[in-house]
Amino acid sequence: MGHVPVLLQESVDLLVSGRRVAGGAGVLVDATFGGGGHSRALLESSGDRVLVVAIDRDPDAGARAQPLFQRFAPRFKLLRGNFADLSRLLDAAGIDKIDGLLLDIGLSSFQLEDGERGFSFQTDGPLDMRMDPSCGEPAAAVVNRADDKTLSRIFRDFGEEPYAVAIAKKIVEKRSGKPFLTTRSLALLVEEMVPPYKRSHRHPATRIFQALRIYVNDELGALREVLETGLARLDHGARLVVISYHSLEDRLVKQVFRQAGKGCICPPRVPVCTCGRQPQVRILHPGGIRPQAGEIALNPRSRSACLRVVECL
Length: 313
Known about the structure:
Elements: H1 8-16, H2 19-22, E1 25-30, H3 37-45, E2 49-56, H4 61-72, E3 76-80, H5 86-92, E4 98-104, H6 109-113, H7 139-145, H8 148-159, H9 164-175, H10 183-193, H11 206-217, H12 219-233, E5 234-244, H13 247-260, E6 281-289, H14 293-298, E7 306-312
Parallel strand pairs: 1-2, 1-4, 2-3, 4-5
Antiparallel strand pairs: 5-7, 6-7
Helix pairs in contact: 1-3, 8-9, 8-11, 9-10, 12-13
């Protein structure tokens, strides 16, 4: 169905209404460029003195960014790299403080629909799942090498899969005869292991593929890193917007935001604050923002999304 940005208007409105950007200047960073929908909307909704910097480690991002270069140069930059390296990337681009940071922590439709990338079992392809195919090891290497305890831990910790142990043992048993090299071969095995009466509206392999993708790309480690370094880069009044799609990501975002929003951390028995700690951010919309029914109807992939936002004090 092509790439459809999730919570587009909500995220753009929050970022462009930040103090400095609303005044017509500043630097906005879209650290998850993907299909470029959020970057385009930020460029269209902000003034001529607002620079939009996009980051993506997908080697195909440059081609998708060409229309933005043609229309918005020099207000638009694309930096190739992992958003976990945010500080290094910004330093290399000569950028210090920023006025807004967007993290849309999900796969783009381009990645999901490209069978050669191995993110989806809807079409058969190599069992890869790397965001950047030029580095790291593919999912197939993990599936065909790790022991059953390691696999079950990956499936449980990163996919919250209730049949993690049974699926891991079956993978180890079957791979000795024929290694798992394609998405379809792994999906079929998982489908056989999950009883029909225990299945939800999602394919039984959804959690397993999620877990492998998160593990292969160290997604939670990268997310924590970009949240912490991103907060340090925000100027006063700047905002950090995060759109997550499953409980592991959302839990981490809430944890980091809650910690950054804390003031005094002295023990309750201490009558007067001695730590001097001040809140770093103010949490906006504490319950999060979720897609409306109309957006979900147009883009079913948005149904699990949750947007959280903080403003730097």
